[in-house]
Write a structure and sequence with these properties.
single chain
């Protein structure tokens, strides 16, 4: 059974089966009724069971191929997401704010009055550790200090 899409090489969605539907033994399936099995019926049951096993094996191969393709697609998607995110990080929206707006945000982050000598881990010192733009903006504004 090698029916595949010529474009993506995934198994065709309609996979042919060998088993007869409905079963030639439909009337006896799922019942407790005992019936006399002739030699011909015994051979036919053996063939139906063998065909069902073969169909199951074919479908297991189809499922494995689809799962493999899915895993490869997910890995490729994860790589593209990482690529995308790395490039988005090069120009975050906050870097597009005018310095005046950024300074206004800086002013709102501190309690007044702020003692710049109290700690280098808070206030304008902390903002200056974020990036060069923030450091330059914070240092250029006397009212922060």
């Amino acid at each position: 059974m090698s029916h595949e899409c010529p474009h993506c090489r995934l198994p065709a969605t309609k996979t042919p089966t060998r088993i007869p539907i409905p079963s030639p033994f439909q009337a006896h399936l799922g019942t407790n009724v005992t019936f006399f099995v002739t030699d011909d019926a015994r051979v036919e049951i053996r063939n139906v069971v063998a065909d069902a096993k073969a169909d199951i094996a074919d479908l297991d191969r189809v499922i494995q191929k689809i799962e493999s393709s899915l895993a490869a697609a997910k890995k490729k998607r994860d790589n593209i997401i990482a690529y995308h995110d790395a490039h988005v990080a090069l120009s975050p929206p906050i870097h597009q704010l005018p310095p005046e707006v950024l300074l206004e945000i800086f002013h709102l982050t501190f309690e007044k009055p702020y003692n710049v000598f109290a700690s280098s881990r808070s206030g304008p010192w902390l903002l200056g550790k974020v990036c060069r733009t923030w450091r330059q903006t914070a240092r250029s504004c006397p009212s922060l200090w």
